[in-house]
Amino acid sequence: MSPDNPEPSGGLKIPGIPDLKMPRLPKLAVDRRKALTVAGVVVAAMAILLVGGMLFASYHEGQQIAAFRSHVSASEADLFLVSGKVASHMRTPTYGLSIAECDAHVREFGAIANYGRAVTAYHRQIVAVDAVPEAYAGAQSAYVRALDNLNRAFTFWSSAAAAYEMRDYPAANRNIVEADGAWREYNTAINDYDHELRTAEEGTETLPA
Amino acid sequence: MDWKDILPVLAGAVVILAVAFVVKPALLGEPIGLVPSGPVPVGGPPAYLPPAPVPTPTPFSDDDEAYSRNFRWTAIDGGVQTIQVRIPEALFHEHRETPRFSDHNSWGRYALADTDRPILEDLARRIAPPTANPDESYFRLMNLVFFVQQIPYDMDDNATSYAEGALPRHVMHVKGGVEYPKYPIEMLVDGRGDCEDAAILMAGLLDALGYDTVLLRYSDHMALGIRMNEFNPYYARYTPRYFTYGGQHYYYVEGTDFDWWNVSVGSTAVWGRPHPIGDTSSTGIPSVQSETPQIIPLRYVPEPGEYRIRPVRLPAGGA
After folding, report:
1. Residue B121: which CATH number?
2. CA of B208 vs chain A CAs: smallest distance (Å)
3. What is the pLDDT of residues B298-311, one digit of tens each?
4. Å between A24 CA and nearest CA of chain B
5. Residue B319 lies in a domain
6. Least Cα separation, residue B265 to chain A (angstroms)
7. Which of B9, B20, B48 is nearest residue A85 as measured by Cβ atoms?
8. Is B73 domain-assigned?
9. Domain extents in chain A
10. Is residue B44 situated within a structural domain?
């Protein structure tokens, strides 16, 4: 029995399968030099993108830090003016003042409190929405907290001045006590800011002093 | 290698950059392009707004209608003195029409009322004339104290305590009676008053001479505290009582009574001397002997303990 024309013993005849001819693939003309060039271009492009991306990321972070720095700097400049007003007011002796002078002194205290409130609220709004690198998030958060506490302290001062106007001296005293508390929390937040900033810039976690 | 081989690579890079700088910021609402992050502040930073000046009241003229009151009193040297005080009627009526502070902590304002000040300064100078001899300062002080102690005592709920013979409309109804702290010139016009009125008048007169005083408030009494350094006279048969406020010692001064006795048996005339400074034991007022008073400064301004704004270090580096 021929494999091409099987003829089983039962008498049935299976038709033969014609010869299949496989088409021949065209032979690739591999130009090794050209392939290497293309691969080199691709690798170079990827490297450029990678390095470019890293440079961009670094530049972008630098931009974010610069923006944060400029906003903190502007805040500090305005707080310096507030501090000048506060220090000048606190240096004024109150002994021997007449009632009219006492009233004028407290009105000025209230005006300074309102000024401080407005300045801290203004800069808090700016610094709080700064996009900063993750390493600076702690410093930003602490600075915003400092501004918040300063704003609270000035709000209590303002309430104390208002209570004085109402001749409710015990309420004025209570507000001053609250303001002192907020001021202490501001000091804590400033310490935290210094610590976080140092950590961000040195890149290592340091224990607070 | 031709340009056509490089173009797809460059196109891919451009697409990536466009997605990074334009599409993503646009989708996330961030600023587009290489711009610093953070909002652009709306308007400039707030500026300091000084308080509006308060117009000063027009002073009362000497030509205005005035109450004239004569006080006959005994100085500490035993000499009988007479002093006349003129008080503008308009000022007196202005005070009478002024509602009173229900909070005792504000009563120092009565003693230091700016409108009363010129009258008190003039009266204090006449009762205790300035002297170049510092040894006489104690006598000046005691003359002022003695002058006030000799003004008759009258309770706030007595119509006789008021020149018009009726309770003023701003008397405060408190538990068990009425309360009406008088401005110093009200007590001078009325010619009488109760313990807080005497303490307020005495505080106003002593403040006009430069003494530092406070009001001492007990549950049923008010007296004066005068700042002195180690007041302990050799003749005192008592331990002078003082109270500490702001690190200073304020010695007790009674304003409503003095040590007196009848000149002779059967006589109504009395002879006396000022109730001494620091003597609480002989006042006969139980609260004074047993309580620690609330100290009310004449001047009050809110004074925070914490107020220093600390400069901070700025972040280093940046673009």
Report:
1. 3.10.620
2. 10
3. 999 999 999 999 99
4. 29
5. no
6. 48
7. B48
8. yes
9. 70-202
10. no
Contact B69, B84 (CB under 8 A): yes
Residue of chain A whose alpha carbon sits nearest to that of B113 = A99
How many beta-carbon contacts under 8 Å exist across A and B?
Answer: 192
CB contact under 8 A, B307 and A105: no
Nearest CA in chain A to B20: A53
| Pick from B214, B216, B207, B196: nearest CA to B101 | B196
B311 domain residue, yes or no: no
The tally of domains found in chain B comes to: 1
Predicted confidence (pLDDT) per residue in B107-156, tens digit: 999 999 999 999 999 999 999 998 888 778 888 999 999 999 999 999 99
Measured between beta carbons, the chain B residues lying within 8 angstroms of A187 are 306, 310
State the DSSP string of A159-190: HHHHHHHTT-HHHHHHHHHHHHHHHHHHHHHH
The whole domain housing B137 covers: 66-297
Q: Considering only CA atoms, which of B293, B283, B278, B108 is closest in space to residue B217? A: B293
Verify whether the Cβ–Cβ distance A180 to B306 is below 8 Å. Answer: yes
